[in-house]
Amino acid sequence: MNYFFQKFGRILVIWLPLGWLLLFFMFPLVEMINVSFSEARRAVPPYIPAFQIGSGGFTFSPVLDNYLLIYEYWEDYLWPAINSIRLAFFSTLYCLLFAYPMAWWIARSNKSIQHILLILVLMPFWTSSLLRMYALIGLLNPNGFINDVLIWAGITVTPIQMMQTDFSIYSGMILTYLPLMILPLYASLVRLDVSIIEAAADLGAKKWDIFRTIVLPLSIPGIVAGSLLVFIPAVGEFVIPALLGGPEQLMLGKVIWTEFFRNRDWPVAAAIAIILIAIIILPIVYARYQDRERIS
Amino acid sequence: MRRDVPLLIKALGIAGFGILYIPVMIMIIYSFNSSKLVAVWAGFSTKWYKELWTDDILLTALYKSLLIGVSSATISTVFGLLIAIAFVRFSVFKGRLILSLVASAPLVMPEAVTGLSMLLLFIAMEISFGWPSGRGVDTIMIAHATFGMCFAAVVIQTRLRDMDKYLEEAARDLGGRQPFVFLSITLPLILPSIIAAWLLSFTLSFDDLVIASFVSGPGSSTLPIVIFSKIRLGVSPEINAIATLMILTISILVLFGSILVLKREDKK
What we know:
CATH class of the largest domain in chain A: Mainly Alpha
Number of helices of chain B: 11
Radius of gyration of chain B: 22 Å
Number of domains of chain A: 2
Low-confidence stretches of chain A: none
Oligomer: heterodimer
Strand order of the largest sheet of chain A: 1-2
CATH topology of chain B: MetI-like fold
Largest sheet of chain A: 2 strands, antiparallel
Helix content of chain B: over 70%
Shape of chain A: globular
Helix content of chain A: over 70%
């Protein structure tokens, strides 16, 4: 009897969450692939499913129209894709530059300061990105805080255009994703054995050489982890390009939104979403591959 | 411990924290500005906060966001706990690979993709079985619970793995039955991580704009959806006030949660 309950409980523990995630995460992705091969129409819902089981029995009629459409108007979709990769890449780089000294500082502080600094890193991470982007708009607007100060100080006469530029996107990305870069960097730096650094210093190594030949190579796992954590969500970002970017900073996340809500072309939105997933899978697979190389 | 952090690194570090905090701080200051013009300081006032309480659309949205946040966070925490138990306590089981895949993929999926795919499923389900009829609070709740449980699982898993297993074994050796051992030994030990997981899922749900926009129906706008449509019209002192309230609330929750977790870590 007891054994039966244990066995039954075990199955429940595994299958409750697994069933939920299969139903509400896996199935939707399958359905999205289905819709991306469907024909668009002006009705509710605005597509004819490529695969369906209904009153007409089982039908399967995939169309490549949506992917061909993306291919035909490739300029409209290719630039947002390139933009997504470019803006996410440089955002990751800038986050790394800002995060490294911060992570080093936290890792080398004593326990109580370390805790305060860690909480200071975590707090903005949990507060809504939407609201922080809104706060940033208040700073960067033509009549925003920074321009006010610059005009008041006599540095510029006319407001500097900061909104709807790459600069505003990078500011937003750093503000949103900096904590995600700091935490793994901190984790790898705090484990670093100080005696190696001391030994190098005792043997007369310069600070820069110690950093270049010891600290940096040993923190590579943290750099890789942090870069993935920033790059992956940054590629699919919607809020930042929607609020801070202009037409030059169009990204795939926003294109999906526009196709879906404004053009009501759901099959094309689904097809773009699949392209976006492909862009995200590449760095993950690459990182996995690198990991395996390092272990072996 | 070592306090040999060079001054330059400290200065760069402070600059980094400045980037994280200055925009929000300036916004908080301007939420107390009595002028309607955002950039002009015209004296201290709390009138924008008072005005929030008369804005019915905001209050309805707040109520919906809280409802969705609390219910989805609760589901997320329970299911996250189950996932954590499965990974940490069951060494080998059928479906381990698929569970680890579906429990980690939502962590990296762009919100627009998750939102769109879930909406498409809800519509396909409605056509096939008539449920869910239309979209609203329930569909947002399901969507939030789905990605929330993956984050909750990560948080609880870390703690469960670090936990001293011998305490459980001792309790079992002394004749404690499995459910009793779990409730009286395991659960209290991992309680901080469960609270942290709940807070995390709640804030993720409470802050979510993109997924909620896709799976919401007419009349089920959450607070971020309402705020987003207001932001599109421009910067205004009312949004400063509501944003200040939201950020302060979440910050206090996070402060509370991180103190819980860090204190536990210190005891080890």
